[in-house]
Amino acid sequence: MAERCTWVIAKEPLYVEYHDKEWGVPVFDDRLLFEMLCLEGAQAGLSWWTILQKRENYRKAFDNFEAEKVIHYTDEKLQLLREDTGIVRNKLKIQSVVTNAKAFLRMQEEYGSFSNYIWSFVDNEPIVNHWGTMKEVPVSNEISDKMSKRLKKDGFKFVGGTICYSYMQAVGMVNDHTLECFCHPSNIKIKK
């Protein structure tokens, strides 16, 4: 059996697949970047496992995170979302998706894409760390704190430093797979 980061719930295929195929893998697709930003915000105060299990429900509830649709949500739609047991029914977190959609579209317009905007925080290059254990992995850093301040200034909600760092891990802006994990770049064999 392959060694994985110790945070993975090995008996849960959904968690294993997320770890093996998504976490730490660079994402440049704007829609997916927006989805992950919203899901990381939904996670605040909860576990990622809780949100991951509800991910498909979130996609259905929020029109697959198509920001152009989300910005037009009415009070009636928001009320329906607050009654949707398939997602976290926190009023502020639900409203933040609409708020963030508006900010997301502004950043797309200003920077040509949201990807250009968000990846600029790491100079458009993933940061690959070399942690021996998960205990060494920080919950935030100088970059995530800087990102948090800027995102807040640009109108985003639920984007504190810890959420931003978790987001950076989720979309591959930072690779925090530990050294023993088969997903760490040093363990990936390049085919010739």
From TrEMBL:
Q: What Pfam families does the record tag this protein with?
A: Adenine_glyco (PF03352)
Ordered alphabetically, the record's keywords are: DNA damage, DNA repair, Hydrolase, Metal-binding, Zinc
Q: Which residues bind Zn(2+)?
A: 5, 19, 177, 181
- Taxonomically, the superkingdom here is Bacteria
**GO MF annotation, one:** metal ion binding
Entry-linked Gene3D superfamilies: Hypothetical protein, domain 2
Give one GO biological process term.
Answer: base-excision repair
Enzyme Commission number(s) of this protein: 3.2.2.20
The residue range of the signal peptide is: none
InterPro entries associated with the record: Adenine_glyco, DNA-3mA_glycosylase, DNA_glycosylase, Tag
Annotated function: Hydrolysis of the deoxyribose N-glycosidic bond to excise 3-methyladenine from the damaged DNA polymer formed by alkylation lesions.
Name the record gives this protein: DNA-3-methyladenine glycosylase I
The species this protein was found in? Psychrobacillus glaciei
